[in-house]
Design goal:
Layout: E1 11-15, H1 20-31, E2 35-40, H2 44-54, E3 61-65, H3 71-85, E4 90-93, H4 108-136, E5 139-144, H5 157-177, E6 182-189, H6 198-210, H7 220-231, E7 242-245
Helix pairs in contact: 1-7, 3-4, 4-5
The structure holds NADPH dihydro-nicotinamide-adenine-dinucleotide phosphate.
Length: 252
């Protein structure tokens, strides 16, 4: 079944849209007619590739070099997008990092970087966006967490804590914003083939694959399709949910 124009004319912000899952979300949204601005940190080549891939799609895609750890930069970028478009309909918080290490050896930098990006960075974008959605009396927020929030993984205490925070934040925010007609949901991917998972795949790919019920790693598009569900009218009566897109990895 072909689905078309689910997001025609919507204004969408995607963090971490230059690569991996975020890029696939950007392209999926633009294919459905949304005008998308994505944030990226510093990878200019990846930004260019995403913009090029979007050039034939029906929605317009723009990029902004915004480090989500910088609250003021996030605020002025959001204000600029809202001023240009007149509103912000959908926010997808996809930017995230790993700095894996066993806790006994973990540096302050590895701990702080992960929390600053994966948790505070999400707050930094949420806070300026929400007032626009409240004014419009509608909006969609989709956070990307991880299977790591619920399934323990060696060397991932910092990352697991950051993604557990995102699951918890999603539920609390869904309660706060439901009276304003703003729906807040979360997609928790399993092992998806991106730059982030390249080294795990090299080191322990067969072992990880053997624990995925569907017997394959996920692709960024698998996650983007779930995000599209939460971003569109297909999920008008759904809020506060964490949807695992992991081929059954969490269950095994
Ligand atoms: P990638 O490493 O492929 O891409 C990360 C993206 O986030 C890039 O666009 C990067 O920008 C951006 N980014 C990182 N830090 C910042 C920052 N401080 N400010 C702005 N942008 C930033 O990651 P994935 O696509 O694999 O992951 C996307 C999300 O999905 C993350 O939240 C991750 O935790 C989550 N996830 C991923 C899984 C997987 O298996 N891949 C599994 C579970 C969850 P730039 O290109 O400029 O560096």
């Amino acid at each position: 079944m072909e689905i078309r124009n689910l997001l025609k004319g919507k204004t969408v912000v995607v963090t971490g849209g230059s690569r991996g899952i975020g890029r696939s979300i950007v392209l999926t949204m633009a294919r459905q007619g949304a005008n998308v601005t994505f944030f990226y940190r510093n990878n200019e080549a990846a930004r260019e590739d995403t913009l090029e891939a979007s050039s034939c799609l029906s929605g317009i895609v723009n990029a902004k070099k915004i480090d989500i750890r910088e609250a003021e930069a996030c605020e002025s970028a959001v204000d600029q997008i809202a001023e240009d478009a007149g509103n912000i309909d959908i926010l997808i918080n996809s930017a995230g990092i790993t700095r894996d290490n066993i806790l006994g050896l973990m540096t302050n930098g590895e701990l702080n970087d992960v929390l600053a990006t994966n948790v505070i960075g999400v707050f930094n974008v949420l806070r300026p966006v929400i007032p626009y959605m409240v004014r419009q009396k509608k909006g969609r927020i989709i956070n990307i967490s991880s299977v790591a929030a619920e399934k323990g993984g060696r060397g991932q205490t910092n990352y697991a804590a950051s993604k557990g925070a995102i699951n918890a934040l999603t539920k609390a925010l869904a309660v706060e914003l439901a009276p304003k007609n703003i729906l807040v949901n979360c997609v928790a991917p399993g092992m998806i083939e991106t730059d982030m998972t390249e080294s795990i795949k090299q080191q322990a790919g067969d072992m990880v694959r053997s624990r995925i019920l569907l017997g394959r790693f996920g692709q960024p598009e698998d996650v983007a399709k779930a995000v599209l569900f939460f971003a569109s009218s297909l999920s008008d009566y759904v809020t506060g949910q964490v949807l695992h897109v992991d081929g059954g990895f969490k269950m095994n």
